[in-house]
Amino acid sequence: MNQTDTPRRVAIVTGGIGGLGTEICRQLAAAGRQVIAVDLATRAERIEAFRRELADLDGAIAFEPADVSDFDSCQQLAARVEQQHGSIDILVNAAGITRDASLRKMTSQQWHELMHVNLDGVFNLCRNVVEGMTARGFGRIVNISSVNGQTGQFGQTNYSAAKAGVHGFSMALARETARKGITVNTVSPGYCDTPMVAAVSAEIRAQIVAGIPVGRLGSPADIARAVAFLAADDAGYITGANLPVNGGYFMSF
Ligand code: CAA
Q1: Is 159 noted as a catalytic residue in this protein?
Q2: Other Cβ atoms closer than 10 A to 164
Q3: What pLDDT is attached to residue 118?
């Protein structure tokens, strides 16, 4: 996608050095955006690998540390990026964790840790970028949900609840911002070739792949393509939508 005819948009990608986030950063940078990959500062080894992997896009992708589960950290991040780059035009909330366990075994800690990152994190970032987007009259927010927020998954009451919540949040914010040039959408990935899915037992993973009509796990590039599409300047009439990218694993309309 060629974005050279539009202003150089500044994009924040949370979970930016993660399984999906890295590729989202790459595709947004390739589309001409100034990208800020956001992740925990503590992931030093991964940050170094990320820098090596994306060396060809040096300059188009910067790294900023922040904890999405911490409101103050997100507020400081937004202020730093706006000061250094002038604006935040695109926000992709891709930070997410799993704490899989059937409800009978799930601890309160597993529930709350997941909610803090996967749902509070979306609030914390959106809350701190929406004023600037409103003032400038332009914004693209893409929240990464999941097929498991649509269908539920054994062992994921926490994750499924948070991901369904992300879509409800996105629809509500889409209504609040529609007249301000801001779109808010979700992308719902299916099972992708990422460390998160690799952590599922081989037996369960094989059963899942057997149920995917396309016959394979998704690639991070499959997801990033959908994100880049929704983040484009000319995607202004798509808002409050969910774009499923799941190889046909769950079909609905
Ligand atoms: N479906 C149906 N039954 C299941 C089951 C499943 N997936 N997993 C376990 N069971 C059954 C067992 O056969 C057993 O039955 P019996 O009591 O009759 O023998 C019972 O449930 C065991 O229950 P437990 O609470 O002891 O389950 P467990 O601890 O063995 O396994 C689990 C729980 C590890 C969470 C496992 O269910 C699992 O791995 N589920 C899949 C989780 C998953 O898909 N995570 C996705 C991660 S990737 C991601 O989230 C990205 C994305 O967006 C797609």
Answers
A1: yes
A2: 19
A3: 98
Instruction: Note the helical H segments in 89-155.
Output: 108-115, 121-136, 147-151
Q: Distance (Å, rounded) from C-alpha 134 to C-alpha 47?
A: 32
| CATH, residue 116 | 3.40.50.720
In a domain, 76, yes or no: yes
**154 C-alpha to center of ligand 1: Å?**
5
User: 92-107: per-residue pLDDT in tens?
Assistant: 999 999 999 999 999 9
For residue 250, CA distances in Å to 75, 126, 146, 191, 239 come to 36, 28, 11, 11, 21
Mutate to test the pocket of ligand 1, among 204, 205, 246, 250 (most ligand atoms within 8 A of CB): 204
Express each pLDDT in 150-162 by its tens digit: 999 999 999 999 9
Take atom 40 of ligand 1 and give the residue whose Cα is closest: 155
| Structural domain includes residue 203 | no
Classify residue 248 as left (phi > 0), alpha (psi -120 to 50) or beta.
Answer: left
Parent domain of 155: 7-191+221-245
Q: Is the pLDDT of residue 204 over 90?
A: yes
Overall domain count for the chain: 1
Quote the mean pLDDT of the chain: 95
Centroid of ligand 1 to alpha carbon of 104 (angstroms): 12
Say what the pLDDT of residue 64 is.
Answer: 95
| Atom number, ligand 1, closest to the C-alpha of residue 190 | 54
List the catalytic residue out of 159, 191, 237, 249: 159
Residue 47 lies in a domain: yes
pTM of the predicted model as reported, rounded to 2 decimal places: 0.96
Residue 251 belongs to a domain: no
